[in-house]
Amino acid sequence: MGGGAPGEMEIASAPVPRPLVAFRSGVAAFDERVDTAFDAVRGRHPVDRVFYAASELGDYSLLWVMLGALRGLRSDRDWKAAVRMGGGLAAESFLVNAVIKSFFKRNRPPWEVERPLNVRRPRTSSFPSGHATSAFVAAVLLSEGDRLWPLYFALAAVVSTSRVYTKMHHASDVVAGIAVGVALGIAGRQLVPLPPVPGSGGAEREG
Fold first, then answer.
1. What share of residues in the chain are helix, strand, coil (percent, to 5)?
2. Backbone phi, then psi, for 167, in 5-degree steps?
3. What is the pLDDT of residues 84-108, one digit of tens each?
4. 15-70 tens-digit pLDDT
5. Count of other CB atoms within 10 angstroms of residue 114
6. C-alpha pair distances (Å), 133 with each of 4, 33, 48, 164, 204
7. Residues 172, 23: contact at Cβ < 8 Å?
């Protein structure tokens, strides 16, 4: 009889359910296909600069803080939208980094690969992508009542894509991050609604 803790052998030898094995295999195959597709454009200097810059601007939600501050300068209502976005990003950061990532603890893509430009090495685990989550939380919250909403979502898409391009995340991390970010952004809209646009009679519906 082994000297391990009670139940150790049973846990180690417990079979993984076939649906879970198939799901993991499908996710791994998806990640590999997407990464291979990006290899076709990696190494092209203009493309490299765009995606590496986007990844850097997404660090610590820097891009979204700047955009929120710019929107907040327009009016009192826009200031409230910017403050709401800041609160949403704070909540997102705690939920993703302190809760979700610590639960899944997924390994990131290998760090020791050749990269044409410098990029900050993350300390957290891989799933989901915090850049993608924060980008879409910010885009959903900032887009309400703002004619610039296409810009917010376009930038969010570029920032999210940059994490796969720079080999900081698996593609499935980014897909999950987008889904979580959109869900949190919608929840933020519902929990902290903006006041109606002056003179609109409460019928404002942009973005």
1. 65, 0, 35
2. 65, 35
3. 999 999 999 999 999 999 999 999 9
4. 778 888 899 999 999 999 999 999 999 999 999 999 999 999 999 999 999 999 99
5. 7
6. 41, 22, 22, 14, 26
7. no
